[in-house]
Amino acid sequence: MDYEAVRAGLQQAIPFNTHVGLEFAEVADGRSVVRLPDADHLKNHVGSQHAGALFAAAEAASGGAFVGAFAEHMAGITPLAKGAEISYLKLARGAVTATATLTEDKAQLVERLDSEGRVEFPVSVDMTDDDGRTVAEMTVHWHVKKNA
What we know:
Blueprint: H1 3-13, H2 15-20, E1 23-28, E2 31-36, H3 51-70, E3 77-88, E4 96-102, H4 106-116, E5 118-129, E6 134-146
Antiparallel strand pairs: 1-2, 2-4, 3-6, 4-5, 5-6
């Protein structure tokens, strides 16, 4: 699989992510890394990254991990984020890196998708500042169905 092509495609695919300035730094099989820049328009009233910007970075990273895992199946499926939980642990100052990981076995997920026509699964995201401190954690619940 050409994950560099997948990464480049994801970088251009979602206009909102471009608007925020998110950068897909890596896409792999069940893993994705997204960088949230340190920009004034993304900050809150105390000068740290806005909660909405952190959420956007984590959601984008989770989508990248999903696409990396299901790249061979994308033409025949429709994915949607069904829900998410986020915990803001520390003030996020500076650029933030959101690293997403598929937490279930990909082969089992594909098997369930093939047999049931749909599958739901979580993707975990760890957000760190440039000093490597975890500033937030998020779980995104994805719902994927086969196209009719």
